[in-house]
């Protein structure tokens, strides 16, 4: 399928999310749309998929102008979309999800489950996408769920696939598998629109890269373009991609974990006898495929999850089983993994979010009454010091971009005396500019003698930031290695091969 | 099967086993060896459709209840050990029935030479079946609405509306078919109001529901005073005639309970089967459930989420309205306030039945029996406060909803407004 967009414009009130966007995807082409968060990529894709109606411009498929009343129309025209947040019903089976909206039926509207199963087997074989049609979707790992999304699109005879930030939730191995699938789909003649802000992937997989910034097409370039050129096109200024840091000067251990066991929500040992030490003035990066106990480990350190056995000490003080407040009071700063669920209240103002960890303490409150002047003063100074882009400190946090929301957390956590900083996925969902900023802040804190524990499933981040890298698999530390260790070696540790790492 | 539902199943098992032991000891051994209990099985009226005659059964109370209690405990232990995937609710229902039987045996025990008191099993079940039927109408209405993602807490109001209009139409036309049509229409209209406010204006569904109940209860009292009292010919009091099914009514106990009922009872059975089949076997059901679980996902494949929700809430309203007429048809007359919270108990049955028609049926049977017994236990001069039995449905629901015996999972988008873009 040849998809052509001509002058697509979409406005939300005064904001122009897409401003006369022209773009052509040739049959069998992998076309990447590269842009920062908020550049208008998702809006554009929702227009193409019929979820939004353009204010101006037209969509042509094989030269014929189209009007999509809803996404059902787009699907019937051969467009399939794999959403960033999967559009799958968790309690349905794979087969039910794949046929939803296009169900084969026998008499009386009865679902023909046998035919659904058969259709899926056929499509999976054709495109080499193995998945059990009878599995319940919520029981599948994320990578397989994504495969179901792709299968769903293909089963509706999609000729053009839109993949919206498809790697955001995947492990390195799953990303490789996805890329192989994308290549084979393109080889069989399918067109692919690939949305991303990750430069490495874009260069690895695309045939053409269209860069958009603030709703406009900035340039169309070949994938051979250098990373720094792509980054500056995307951000609109020069950005440094590597983290510059001097060698660490580690001091005494500050955060110590001894033989810690933590159970997950299902009662299984998610953290299985883990011992770790984080020294003052060093960054310990905890690598691992998501879901191997990192989340539970951090929750246990911060006091959000009970510790089954073992001991956690902070600056020599036992904080095993302490409440989150007393842990924070002992000098721990926490950047949580999911900033929308923990760490921020989106409907509160920027100023209130900046004092969330000390709302009832001096100088922000006095005898149970808030000192709003102090709250505002604190907010104004942090907003300028950490370069938080907001219309006002009283604006609701939800009006800020993801990157600026993250800056609010970073600013709050780093604006008080700390012994240790625990940061989970600190740059997830952030654009290049914000990533650079957050990394610089973290390294600065480490230089000033803070002990830093970074948890990240991005191997690049782990290798760029860590002074030592601990790899976690199935609740256990499979090795603690030097950042100069090869990616393959770390990949093996992530897959569970036990290392001969020191410590 | 997930760990959570395994835990829930085990929790129910423990509860059943304990209830069994309490029954065996409290209602069994504590009754003493001299106590006797009598059961009869014949309906009071002896018309042509009366079942085959069964004699009176007299049992030693202690031994009978010991056996019943141990059977209950055994069912509980079986759940605990085997943790079966299916039939948990059915086992629970069976244990509840055994418990009620034991309670009755204990209540009518006598130590004298001749039985002066007895339980008419058939009469108890027939009496309870009227309440159960109404609860099933209500919980089916809930299934239809909530599976599509809209909480219908207005079932009580739809009962009132259906009962009021049903009584007027039945009194004037003397035909329950027209009463059912009118009551269903009123329920559907109330469903439309709920759908319109919560889908078009995204009002809080719970609040809209409560407002509708309050409105209907006030309005029906007012109209009762202004219309039905001065013109009693519009509220003459009609009981829906029974339509006995030949031969089947001859079966002892089951015959009168299942096959000598009004048209509403048979309609209820047809509806349960239709909703159960429709929801889980058809394209319509798959789409409804998708809309209730993940409306965005449904929308991306071209399903009209709002349209599905409108249709289901209106349909649910019709079913609840029919329930109101059915209730009126067992009482004879409209009286303000006489639904006395049945709509809410139907919601509880929906939750306890895990948003499934079959589960709702089991829960409605248990709740219907406990309500019936709470209304009628005085006749047995039981030293248990009737209010305590009346609380049983609520106690069970609180236990279930709070996760005391495991956690139930409603449709993921239940009560969550859906907005395009």
Protein model, in words:
- The complex is a heterodimer of chains A (503) and B (421).
- By secondary structure, chain A is an alpha/beta fold.
- Chain A contains 16 helices and 22 strands.
- Chain A folds into three domains: 3-235, Rossmann fold; 240-331 and 417-503, P-loop containing nucleotide triphosphate hydrolases (Rossmann fold), CATH 3.40.50; 347-416, no CATH class.
- In chain A, helix 13 (402-414) packs parallel to helix 14.
- The termini of chain A are far apart.
- With 421 residues, chain B is mainly α.
- Helices cover 66% and strands 3% of the residues of chain B.
- In chain B, helix 2 (61-82) runs antiparallel to helix 3 and helix 13 (342-352) crosses helix 14 (357-376).
- Classes of the chains: A alpha/beta (503), B mainly alpha (421).
- Chain A binds chain B through residues 49, 51-52, 70-73, 75-76, 81, 83, 86-92, 96-97, 100-103, 105, 108-111, 156, 266-267, and chain B through 2-4, 281-287, 289-290, 293-294, 296-303, 412, 421.
Q: Summed up, what is this model?
A:
The complex is a heterodimer of chains A (503) and B (421). Chain A has 16 helices and 22 strands. By secondary structure, chain A is α/β, with parallel strands linked by helices.
């Amino acid at each position: 399928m040849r998809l052509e967009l001509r002058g697509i414009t979409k406005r939300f009130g005064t904001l122009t999310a897409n401003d006369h966007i022209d773009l052509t995807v040739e049959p069998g082409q992998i076309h990447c749309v590269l842009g920062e968060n908020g550049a208008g990529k998702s809006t554009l894709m929702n227009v193409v998929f019929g979820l939004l109606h353009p204010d101006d411009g037209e969509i042509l498929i094989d030269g014929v102008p189209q009007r999509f009343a809803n996404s059902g129309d787009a699907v019937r025209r051969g467009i399939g979309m794999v959403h960033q947040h999967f559009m799958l019903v968790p309690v349905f089976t794979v087969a039910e999800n794949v046929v939803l909206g296009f169900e084969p039926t026998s008499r009386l509207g009865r679902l023909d489950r046998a035919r659904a199963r058969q259709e899926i087997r056929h499509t999976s074989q054709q495109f080499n996408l193995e998945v059990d049609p009878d599995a319940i979707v919520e029981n599948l790992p994320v990578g397989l769920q994504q495969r179901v999304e792709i299968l769903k699109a293909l089963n509706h005879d999609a000729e053009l696939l839109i993949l919206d930030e498809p790697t955001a939730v995947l492990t390195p191995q799953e990303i490789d598998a996805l890329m192989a699938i994308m290549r084979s789909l393109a080889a069989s003649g399918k067109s692919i629109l690939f949305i991303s802000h990750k430069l490495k992937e874009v260069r690895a997989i695309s045939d053409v890269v269209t860069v958009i910034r603030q709703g406009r097409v900035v340039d169309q370039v070949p994938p051979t373009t250098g990373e720094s050129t792509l980054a500056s096109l995307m951000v609109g200024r020069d950005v440094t991609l590597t983290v510059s840091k001097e060698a660490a000067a580690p001091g005494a251990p500050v955060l110590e974990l001894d033989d810690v066991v933590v159970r997950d929500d299902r009662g299984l040992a998610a953290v299985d006898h883990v011992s770790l030490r984080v020294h003052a003035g060093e960054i310990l990066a905890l690598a691992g495929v998501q879901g191997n106990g990192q989340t539970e480990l951090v929750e246990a350190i911060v006091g959000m999850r009970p510790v089954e056995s073992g001991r956690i000490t902070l600056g020599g003080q036992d904080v095993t089983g302490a409440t989150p407040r007393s842990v924070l009071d002992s000098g721990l700063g926490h950047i949580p993994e999911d900033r929308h669920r923990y760490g921020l209240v989106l409907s509160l103002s920027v100023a209130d979010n900046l004092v969330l960890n000390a709302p009832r303490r001096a100088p922000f409150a006095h005898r149970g009454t808030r000192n709003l002047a102090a709250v505002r003063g604190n907010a104004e100074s942090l907003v300028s010091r950490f370069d938080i882009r907001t219309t006002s400190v009283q604006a609701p946090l939800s009006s800020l971009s993801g990157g600026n929301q993250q800056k609010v957390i970073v600013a709050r956590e780093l604006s008080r005396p700390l012994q240790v900083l625990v940061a989970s996925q600190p740059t997830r969902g952030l654009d290049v500019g914000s990533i650079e900023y957050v990394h610089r802040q973290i390294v600065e804190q480490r230089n000033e003698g803070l002990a830093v524990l970074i948890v990240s499933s991005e191997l690049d981040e782990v290798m760029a930031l860590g002074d030592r890298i601990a790899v976690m698999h199935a609740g256990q530390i499979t090795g603690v290695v030097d950042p100069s260790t090869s990616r393959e070696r770390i990949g093996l540790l992530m897959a569970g091969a036990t290392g001969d790492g020191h410590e | 099967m997930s760990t959570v539902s395994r835990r829930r199943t085990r929790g129910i098992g423990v509860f059943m086993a304990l209830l069994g032991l309490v029954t065996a000891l409290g209602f069994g051994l504590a009754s003493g060896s001299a106590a006797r209990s009598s059961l009869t099985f014949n309906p009071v009226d002896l018309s042509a459709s009366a079942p085959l005659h069964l004699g009176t059964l007299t049992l030693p109370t202690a031994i009978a209840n010991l056996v019943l209690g141990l059977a209950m405990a055994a069912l509980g232990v079986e759940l605990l050990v085997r943790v079966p995937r299916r039939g948990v609710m059915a086992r629970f229902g069976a244990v509840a029935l055994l418990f009620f039987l034991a309670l009755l045996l204990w209540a009518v025990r006598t130590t004298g030479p001749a039985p002066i008191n007895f339980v008419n099993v058939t009469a108890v079940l027939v009496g309870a079946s009227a309440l159960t039927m109404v609860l099933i109408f209500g919980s089916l209405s809930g299934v239809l609405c909530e599976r599509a993602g809209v909480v219908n807490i207005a079932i009580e109001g739809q009962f009132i509306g259906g009962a009021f209009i049903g009584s007027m139409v039945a009194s004037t036309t003397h035909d329950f078919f027209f009463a059912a049509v009118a009551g269903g229409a009123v329920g559907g209209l109330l469903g439309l109001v709920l759908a319109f406010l919560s889908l078009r204006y995204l009002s809080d569904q719970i609040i809209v529901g409560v407002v509708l109940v309050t409105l209907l209860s006030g309005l029906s009292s007012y109209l009762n005073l202004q219309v039905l009292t001065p013109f009693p010919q519009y509220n003459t009091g009609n009981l829906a005639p029974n339509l006995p099914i030949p031969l089947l009514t001859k079966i002892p106990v089951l015959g009168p309970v299942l096959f000598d009922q009004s048209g509403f009872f048979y309609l209820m059975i047809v509806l349960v089967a239709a909703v159960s089949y429709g929801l889980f076997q058809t394209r319509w059901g798959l789409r409804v459930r998708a809309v209730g679980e993940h409306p965005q996902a449904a929308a991306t494949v071209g399903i009209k989420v709002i349209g599905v929700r409108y249709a289901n809430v209106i349909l649910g309203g019709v079913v609840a309205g029919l329930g109101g007429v059915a209730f009126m048809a067992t009482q004879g007359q409209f009286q303000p306030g006489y639904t006395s919270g049945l709509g809410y108990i139907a919601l509880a049955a929906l939750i306890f039945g895990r948003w499934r028609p079959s589960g709702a049926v089991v829960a409605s049977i248990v709740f219907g029996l406990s309500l019936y017994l709470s209304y009628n236990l005085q006749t047995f001069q039981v030293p248990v406060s009737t209010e305590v039995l009346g609380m049983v449905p609520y106690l069970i629901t609180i236990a279930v909803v709070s996760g005391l015996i495991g956690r139930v999972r409603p449709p993921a988008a239940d009560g969550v407004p859906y907005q395009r873009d």
